[in-house]
Amino acid sequence: NAGVTQTPKFRVLKTGQSMTLLCAQDMNHEYMYWYRQDPGMGLRLIHYSVGEGTTAKGEVPDGYNVSRLKKQNFLLGLESAAPSQTSVYFCASSGGIGSTGETQYFGPGTRLLVL
Amino acid sequence: AQSVAQPEDQVNVAEGNPLTVKCTYSVSGNPYLFWYVQYPNRGLQFLLKYITGDNLVKGSYGFEAEFNKSQTSFHLKKPSALVSDSALYFCAVRDGAAGNKLTFGGGTRVLVKP
Questions:
Q1: Residue A74 DSSP class
Q2: Half-sphere exposure of B99 (CA within 13 A, CB side)
């Protein structure tokens, strides 16, 4: 099992450009999440999904959109990148509610620099 | 709203000495608590969790955590630290509402010196 994978690993964008980050999981998990990590602020939830075809806003959703067309994939889009979106982005997945499904498993991250 | 506090930005400890990383939480209802570790340029790795049951939870790599309801704390401990334990540690609490969402603390950097 590859677990949770993220594409790309690193990207540089100019202000106003768009891009899509791809997250894939092979654990048949129902729930998927996108976080951003900034120094001293821990991880903050951007959007999440509780199943194929569903998405919901997290703590810091502005400037991002997501889609979950397939159960194993969760896409994060930036329509018009801003320097404030320079960050490290992590995807995670979990099995959902229940004592064994609570744990979220994380991908290796995507480092994004917006100039 | 739920929250997690990690009061120490950095913890320095000598190899072989006990390691403690502090975490306090605020949540309505029963807390579901987690510890994750992040090594440089890597994603977060799950260490352990408290859902219910014994207050002392054992996890990966020799780590354990003690749940204290009266003090609303969930401190991470290791009896004898290794240089390889140097990393960034995150405490998190699960949102009881839909989505199994986690709220993370700001992280504590652990430096274990030889």
A1: E
A2: 20
In the stretch 11-70 of chain A, residues with CB closer than 8 A to chain B read 31, 33, 40-45, 48, 50, 56, 58
Sign of CA dihedral A7, B44, A76, A31: positive
- Amino acid found at A36: R
List the single residue in B42, B46, B49 with the smallest CB-CB distance to A105.
B46
B43 vs A109: CB contact, 8 Å cut-off? yes
3-state SS string for B44-113: EEEEEEECCCCCEEECHHHCEEEEECCCCEEEEEECCCCHHHCEEEEEEEECCCCCCCEEECCCEEEEEE
User: Residue A40's pLDDT is what?
Assistant: 75
Q: Could you tell me the CA-to-CA distances from B81 to A96, B9, B15, B105 in Å, in that order?
A: 33, 18, 5, 22
Contact A86, A113 (CB under 8 A): yes
Distance from CA of B55 to the nearest CA of A (A): 16
- Full pLDDT tens readout for chain B, 114 residues: 789 999 999 999 999 999 999 999 998 888 899 999 999 888 899 999 998 888 999 999 999 999 999 999 999 999 999 999 999 999 999 876 666 788 999 999 999 999
Q: What is d(CA A110, CA A43) in angstroms, rounded to the nearest whole number?
A: 13
Return the pLDDT at B40.
87
Residues in A closer than 8 angstroms to B99, CB to CB, are: 31, 48, 50, 56
